[in-house]
Amino acid sequence: MRQPSDFGDLRATVEEHRDTNGYGCAAVICAAAVTENSSLRQTLGGTWKRHCVQGDKQRYYQTTFTDKHGRSQRAIACQQSVMGMTAAAALATKATILFRPRYLLMCDIAAGIQTGSEQLFGDVLVPDEVWDCTTGKIVGPNESEIRYGAIGFLPRPNPCVPTQISRQ
């Protein structure tokens, strides 16, 4: 188990990168998987270098860019070690504590992309509604008894509740 003294280097990293407004970088961009992380770094361009934080096995990548006011800014990219909302929340929290970003961005591919869809690979999507996909499935309003306006919801079956399967 880690001791409070083990975090001294992490605290130094946090303090080392703060600007006068208290921000450590312009943005931290978290990705769910290797594909998203490498694609985002390639799409954004620039030179991304591995950024190591002593005492932390997480892989971070750092780049600098010039903003519209001519100031040098820093961005950090990181990727979850496993899929899921818990891992995403943990990584976002840790990166926010370490780097104090002005903006925290999450990138991922959108589920359900089909040929002829309004959304295509690479599109930037800004949701007005998000949900925990592990709790169930969003369906049409006529496909479920649970409705939120024009949206239906099918909850995931609870594996802890025994069910009786009958043969007919």
What does this structure look like?
With 168 residues, the protein is α/β, with parallel strands linked by helices. It folds into 2 domains: 4-107, Rossmann fold (3-Layer(aba) Sandwich), CATH 3.40.50; 127-168, no CATH class. It has helices at residues 8-16, 34-44, 85-99; strands at 25-31, 49-53, 56-66, 72-79, 101-107, 136-139, 146-148, 151-155. The strands form 2 sheets. Strands 2-3-4-1-5 form a 5-stranded mixed beta sheet. Strand 2 and strand 3 form a beta hairpin. The longest helix is centred in the middle third of the chain and has 15 residues, at 85-99. It is elongated and about 55 Å long.
* Computed structural class: alpha/beta
Give the DSSP E fraction (strand runs of 2 or more residues): 25-35%
**Strands of the largest sheet, in order across it?**
2-3-4-1-5
Rg computed from alpha carbons, rounded to a whole number of angstroms: 21 Å
**Estimated helix fraction:** 10-25%
Count of alpha/pi helices: 3
CATH architecture of the largest domain: 3-Layer(aba) Sandwich
Distance between the termini: 55 Å
What's the quaternary structure here? single chain
The poorly predicted ranges are 1-8
* H-E order: HEHEEEHEEEE
CATH superfamily of the largest domain: Nucleoside phosphorylase domain
| Biggest beta-sheet profile | 5 strands, mixed
The total of beta strands comes to: 8
- CATH C-level class of the largest domain is Alpha Beta
Any idea of the CATH topology of the largest domain? Rossmann fold
Mean pLDDT: 77
Q: Looking at the structure, what is the overall shape? A: elongated
